[in-house]
Amino acid sequence: MDKQVSSRGTKEKALRLNLDEKKYGTIVEIGAGQEVARNFFVAGAAAGTIAKTMSAYDMKFSDAIYGVQEDGRYVSKARVLAMMEQEFDLVVDRVGAIRSKSSRYFSYATTVSAKSFNRKNECHAWCGVRIQMYPGAEPSNIIVHVRMFDDTAEAQQQALGILGVNLIYASYYYFEDPKMIIDSLTDNMKANRIEIDCIDFQGPYFEDVDNQAKNIHLIRSWKTRAIMFKADGSVAVPADMLYKKNVLTIRGSFKPITKLNVDMIEQGFKAFSTQEGVTDKNTVLIAEISLNDLHGKDANMTEKDIMERVKLLNLLGYNVMISDYTRYFSLRAYFRQYTQLQIGIVVGMVNIKQIFDEEYYRGMEGGILEAFGKLFPDNTRLFVYPERDEKGELTDLTTISVPHNLRYLFRHVLDNGFITSIESSDPDLFNIFSREILQQICRGQGDWIDAVPETVSQAIMEQKLFGYRG
Fold first, then answer.
1. Residue range 239-467 in CATH 3.40.50.620
2. Which SUPFAM superfamilies does this chain map to (predicted)?
């Protein structure tokens, strides 16, 4: 759960900043009051830190000040970046020549879509700070995307006010430790009020910061349950990637991704494409890696290990999701937050056996029935890839053995199309086992090169991934 980094409350953090005459800047907030600025004024001595506060609610006013971004949106990363850059330049231009040479300037900006009284809307915000880490330095940025879960606009404003103070405070006092910056963002805030699902460190001071790794820390710092990477490796906001999209996902260790994994994805998509409304253009493919093991415990993967897997998946053009979800119905519920279209999950026979294991649902009041009700409520299907058993016999949904007391439940989901068999394109792929491939890579021996796509084998050898010895 969230941990408190600083013993200071929000007011004490704001006061410490206010009393430091070397720190000086502006705060602009659009869409949810002026709670960040208010916290500095309530703390006292704000004149020592705040040059200007502003809100520009009217779109024409906002456009006249900050211009119109290419995406045309007002609650966007592009808009908050434009706000930060313009306000930072203004404060330096206007007071840089008359203030102490030891001054370190900043601009804080946020653009928000808060809870509305007359419509249902996604409650989210982009918040960022542009800051000099030392006097005269080129500025660096920290930008976060936030989802708000409070029931009222007033409570959401209050949460964003706390977050804003935390972000400004952390950028000055924890700038040498990006993980501590992340940990501190929910100081003085109760759990489950906000979710931070994307963070971006930019600029000369953070040029050595691995943004992929730091976004993974969002999960381990309990700021979010999942993060997304686009196929080009850049960090994505889940809502932007999933909104009004059909989603096909496959869970795996992908250490490394093999030709078997690729065939599962391709055959799964072929079957998924037969569903109503599914096309290449409106469907997103996602390879998902869970940080938890089968029992819901931390699998203790290192960031380096995770990033090596992500890198290889990106090489093959796949979007990647890192999550801490254990059960498949939780994964489905996550996707359903963002899209009402089709959801497909590609699984192997071992996963189906797990799904029909009642021990898998220990701790759930409704047991396996509750779990299935959450997994298959609407437009959700599992596509099941076959395997060879220990005797070399092909095993699929026609030959699987489920517990006797669950045979009618199995029949129900099968007959209603909630689970569907898919075929392998090459029987030889059944001889590929990721654990064996990984052992061969580490030893620098074996036929592992033939078991993975060519671009993957080249990257492993050239970059010495997964402990490769060549």
1. yes
2. Nucleotidylyl transferase
